[in-house]
Design brief:
Blueprint: E1 3-9, H1 16-25, E2 30-34, H2 36-42, E3 53-57, E4 65-68, H3 70-81, H4 88-112, H5 125-154, H6 166-179, H7 195-205, H8 208-224
Parallel strand pairs: 1-2
Antiparallel strand pairs: 1-3, 3-4
């Protein structure tokens, strides 16, 4: 029997859409949550010095395979659970949507980790907040508008096709970051003008297995913080 261990920090980040894929597909997995000290010890053993990391064992007694890069892991899991299309054209549309979400996320990530994007660290809080204002007012609206148009043209309430795919889980996870209120300078109402994007959040959360997972996670995190 195959086994799966997903290693990441105790945050949503780039692992939550993979977790949701496991949950939606009814596949048991070891959700290994590590802290920064544990990561520093583990980092040299990973393929690219990055998380998330999937350790996959096809059958008992076989050598585990370590898979890096969140989109590669998501596709791997998606194929196992039927949330990644077998048809190559349909798969291309899923890939295109997932790649476009990377275009949306990149400028946001640059406001958090500018050196990773070959940018100097912000010269004080005013500079950082000015960058967030440009993000919210000048960059994200056109990107969200394009994403909204894609969903409107599709017409099913899902990003691609007539049923949930891994693209929906990726979009859901990242769009939730923008509406979380955790990004100072980015209003939690930023998706209010994009009904299809907001509708996607509700649609994913209505999947019973996902709703159950999120309730359990909320309880776990609440207990952890008491």
């Amino acid at each position: 029997m195959a086994s799966y261990k997903l290693t990441y920090f105790d945050i949503n980040g780039r692992a939550e859409y993979i977790r949701l894929a496991f949950v939606a597909g009814g596949i048991e997995f070891d959700n290994e949550l590590i802290n920064r000290d544990m990561w520093q010890a583990m980092k040299p053993t990973t393929p690219f010095g990055q998380l998330p990391l999937l350790t996959y064992t096809k059958a008992e007694g076989e050598e585990p395979v370590k898979i890096a890069q969140s989109n590669a892991i998501l596709r791997f899991v998606g194929k196992a659970i039927g949330l990644y299309p077998e048809d190559p054209v349909a798969a291309m549309h899923v890939d295109s949507a997932m790649d476009y979400m990377e275009d949306i996320m990149a400028p946001m990530q640059a406001t958090i980790f500018p050196p990773r994007y070959a940018m100097p660290a912000w010269d004080g809080e005013d500079a950082r907040m000015a960058a967030r204002a440009r993000l919210a007012n000048d960059i994200l609206p056109s990107k969200f508008a394009a994403a909204e148009a894609l969903m409107a043209a599709n017409g099913s309430g899902w990003v691609v096709g007539d049923a949930m795919t891994i693209a929906d889980l990726k979009w859901y996870t990242h769009l939730n970051r923008f509406t979380s209120g955790d990004l100072d300078g980015v209003p939690a109402t930023i998706l209010d003008d994009y009904p299809n994007l907001k509708g996607l959040l509700a649609k994913v959360e209505a999947v019973p297995a996902i709703a159950e997972w999120q309730a359990a996670e909320q309880a776990r995190k609440a207990a952890k913080n008491t």
